[in-house]
Write a structure and sequence with these properties.
Elements lengths: L6 H8 L6 E2 L22 E6 L5 H17 L2 E6 L4 H13 L4 E4 L4 H13 L4
Parallel strand pairs: 2-3, 2-4
Antiparallel strand pairs: 1-4
């Protein structure tokens, strides 16, 4: 099985839970017109900035992300904002600083997170 990350596998990974947003791709409005290209490589580091783990749906979403990443041989770096928008923004910025290959997060507040989507885009992280 190929470990190359394709658009389809990104969509499967991000669809682990309805409402998961791939930075820069699924935001509406003027936040991001295009996704930065993803370099083809053997494996990927996926940054997943979860909004909270206080309810069963988010727990299941995180478990699905873990399972999908493991099935593909990808490293998954997870954070938990504990229902705190400022913490989720800080988590996303920390993942950008770690230079993850792709960033996935269900935004707690999409407007507040718009600037970090642009930061990820500027860093070349889809």
């Amino acid at each position: 099985m190929s470990r190359i990350l394709t658009r389809r596998s990104v969509l499967r990974l991000s669809a682990a839970g309805t409402g998961v947003f791939v930075a820069g791709r699924y935001f509406t409005g003027t936040v991001a017109a295009q996704v930065p290209p993803l370099e083809q490589q053997e494996t990927y580091t996926i940054g997943f900035a979860q909004t909270d783990l206080a309810n069963p749906w988010r727990i299941a979403e995180s478990q699905s992300m873990q399972e999908e990443a493991a099935a593909r041989g990808y490293e998954l770096v997870e954070t938990n904002a504990n229902e705190d928008t400022a913490k989720q923004i800080a988590d996303v910025r920390a993942l950008i600083a770690q230079q993850v290959d792709i960033l996935i997060f269900p935004p707690r507040e999409s407007q507040a997170l718009a600037p970090v989507v642009l930061e990820a885009k500027a860093a070349g992280i889809p």
